[in-house]
Amino acid sequence: MQLFWRQGFEATSLNDLTTAMGIAPPSLYAAFGSKEQLFREAIGRYLQQFRCNHAATLQAPEVTAREAFGRLFAAIANGFSGCGHPPAAC
Hints:
By secondary structure, the protein is mainly α. It contains 5 helices and no strands. The protein starts with a helix and ends in a 9-residue tail after the last helix.
C-alpha cells in the first residue's frame, strides 16, 4: 500500500513489490494473480483502515451530522495532504 502510495501504480515495478514484500515473483502471482489485483487489494485495505479509524466520528450520537461530516472531510484532507503522503512537500 505504501509503495503504491509513494510511487504510483505505473512507476511501481514488480521487482519493487516483491522486494518490499520479501517474496519471489511466483509467490506474488500465486497470492494476487497480478500487479493490478494487488493494487486493488491495497486500495481495499486502505479504505478498510480509513473506515475503522473514522467510523466513530460518524456514529457518535452527541455529534451533529454537519459536525461529523466536517470532521470526516478534515480527516480526508489531512490524509491526502499530510507529511509523508505524496505529493506533499514537507
